[in-house]
Amino acid sequence: MKCRALLGLLAGLALLLAGCGGSSGAADAGGSSAAAQPKTLTVLAAASLTETFDAMKARFETDNPGVTVRISYGGSSDLASQIVNGAPVDVFASASDATMKTVTDKDLTTAAPTIFATNVLQIATQPGNPKGIASFADLAKPDLKVVVCAPQVPCGAAAKKIETATGVTLTPVSQETDVKSVLGKVSTGNADAGLVYVTDVTAAKDSVQGVTFPEAQQAATNYPIAVVKNAPQADLAQKWIDMVTGEFGQKTLNAAGFGAEK
Predict the structure, then answer these.
(1) What's the pLDDT at 20?
(2) Does residue 197 have a known ligand-binding role?
(3) Tens digit of each residue's pLDDT (9 = 90 or more) over 91-108
(4) Strand 221-227 to strand 114-119: parallel, antiparallel, or no bridges (unpaired)?
(5) Has 148 been labeled as part of a binding site?
(6) What is the pTM of this model?
(7) For strand 209-211 and strand 121-125, is the pairing parallel, antiparallel, or unpaired?
(8) What DSSP string runs through 142-159?
């Protein structure tokens, strides 16, 4: 009798342990299914934002585990065209109101864009400024190889605005698709000077030298940002904008030479 009782007790314990094991497995399965799935936030941003947005990408991914931020940089006009043509995008950060208007005119943002920074042009020369460029008017000298952005790109439109205001006509050897391309021509010695943003000269460090000119203030540009309509990751897109316009984002932008948000 005692043996039978002992065997019964052992059998009961075995069933209890099996039941506990089953519950643990279900909890694990449930925990796994409840775990956050990897997500990708897609941002299109003006080329002049490369260094600052790369820094923000690292911060955002740290603060949002499982999220990958994919940023495509380029000329704002090209990026706007991609959105108008249906590219799946979450956030658009432009280097001018005009290029953002290309998107808002098609009703392709969820709300009115927010201005998060400003910028002005600066002349980039080779280190040491061997041609002695001291003013915007100097860029019209016939012996200089000058590079600018194409007129449909914000930095090119700003250059045209300054030409009109000053009566100085430039004859560039090439018109590039974005400021980074202009900067590359100067830093490699393929051009004597180029018109880029002051922030690009700062980011380039010793590879170029900057020449400030007062007329640049006549073509200061705004940087608007917005969540794109039907964004695949709309909630994350708004979190990104909150970071850009928040304390960390503004400190990062200001340190790079951008003007404050409006």
Answers:
(1) 41
(2) yes
(3) 999 999 999 999 999 999
(4) antiparallel
(5) no
(6) 0.82
(7) antiparallel
(8) TT--EEEE-TTSHHHHHH
CB-CB neighbours of 78 under 10 Å: 17
Give the pairing type, strands 121-125 and 174-176: unpaired
Q: What tokens were used for 115?
A: 């201005």
Which tokens hold the place of 65?
A: 């585990």
Q: Which residue has the tokens 């000058």?
A: 146
Is the model more confident about 12 or about 215?
Answer: 215
Strand ranges for 99-144 from DSSP E? 114-119, 121-125
- Per-residue model confidence as pLDDT tens digits over 142-162: 999 999 999 999 999 999 999
Q: Is 69 annotated as a binding residue?
A: no
Q: 219 near 162, Cβ under 8 Å?
A: yes
Say whether 121-219 and 39-118+222-255 share the same fold: yes
Q: In this structure, which amino acid lies at residue 187? A: S
The full set of domain ranges for the chain reads: 39-118+222-255, 121-219
Fold for domain 121-219?
A: D-Maltodextrin-Binding Protein; domain 2 (3.40.190)
CATH of range 39-118+222-255; options 3.40.190.10, 3.40.710.10, 1.10.10.10, 3.30.70.141: 3.40.190.10
179 assigned ligand-binding residue: yes
pLDDT number for residue 204: 93
pLDDT band at 17 (very low <50, low <70, confident <90, very high): very low
